[in-house]
Write a structure and sequence with these properties.
The chain is of the alpha+beta class. The chain is built from four helices and six strands; from the N terminus they run ααββααββββ. Keywords: Signal.
Length: 143
């Protein structure tokens, strides 16, 4: 009698974890879709809503490490001062995993189509944390 009960409990827990991952995956992909739309509308203010609004936010790019939400925001404004330099963003997700409770790790490709300024692109990794029920990017490494 113990074996069927144990099997049932394992299946119940596994199913619950998979459902959680599906919901979390959908939430993260929804944030990325919204960020893409915000970027393509020229709205960096709204694009930033996917990031942790804290001094502990870390952005790693070709110029090194930037700490803090405000510094990251200012760097976006400086690098992309107008629609021509912003171009049209496309994200391609290569891998999204959940290495721990309330932690997600995403690897992807980005591409900006910019007819006037020339296309650019590269890869990125995002470390996400679920804080107070909301997924936010706590570290972005884009190259």
């Amino acid at each position: 009698m113990r074996k069927p009960i144990l099997t049932f409990l394992v299946l119940l827990l596994t199913t619950g974890l998979m459902a959680q991952s599906k919901n979390d995956r959908a939430a993260i992909l929804s944030i990325l879709d919204r960020q893409t739309a915000d970027w393509n509308a020229g709205n960096i203010d709204s694009f930033m809503n996917g990031y942790l609004e804290s001094d502990s936010l870390m952005f790693v790019g070709k110029n090194g490490v930037t700490y803090g939400y405000q510094n990251t925001y200012q760097n976006y404004l400086k690098r992309y001062p107008d629609r021509a330099t912003m171009g049209t963003l496309k994200f391609t997700i290569l891998n999204l995993s959940f290495p721990g409770k309330d932690v997600a790790f995403l690897v992807g490709k980005w591409h900006l189509t910019r007819p006037q300024a020339g296309d650019v692109g590269g890869h990125y990794t995002l470390l996400w944390r679920k804080i107070k029920g909301k997924w936010v990017i706590v570290c972005d490494h884009t190259s």
